[in-house]
Design a protein that fits this description.
There is one protein chain. With 131 residues, the protein is of the alpha+beta class. It has three helices and six strands, in the order E-H-E-E-H-E-H-E-E. The chain has helices spanning 17-20, 32-52, 82-91, and strands spanning 6-11, 21-24, 27-30, 62-70, 101-110, 116-123. The strands form two sheets. The chain has a four-stranded mixed β-sheet. It has a two-stranded antiparallel ribbon with strand order 2-3. It is globular, with a radius of gyration of 16 Å.
Amino acid sequence: MSKRKELLLSLPVPITENHAYFYRMGRKNLNTAAKKWMSNAEEITRGEIKRQHWETTAKHKVVVEIHTYWPDARVRDTHNSYKLLFDALENAKVFDNDRYALARQIDYSIDRENPRVDLKIYLKEVTEVEP
């Protein structure tokens, strides 16, 4: 079995989809806080891509294992921040299109000192299916 290449990231907790957008004249737009988060997440990701020698995937499924560390015990939905997270990963060139990203929420915890999302990204092994 060949060894899978991995990209490990630690990013600030994304803004939820409910709080990332505003509507103007029927169009959905990112608000200032969401734009700031995206810019920061993309910068961190680009740095890690270079440091870890990750190559942008093209038309290949990637698994994104997610462990979220909330800042407090308030009840939150982990999946509500995937849109912004996956758009930032695509913009930073982790993959060519986020349609190939398979989200796997591994766990969530509380870390009051360092709230974040830890990501482990790797190529999904291709298995041949006989007809």
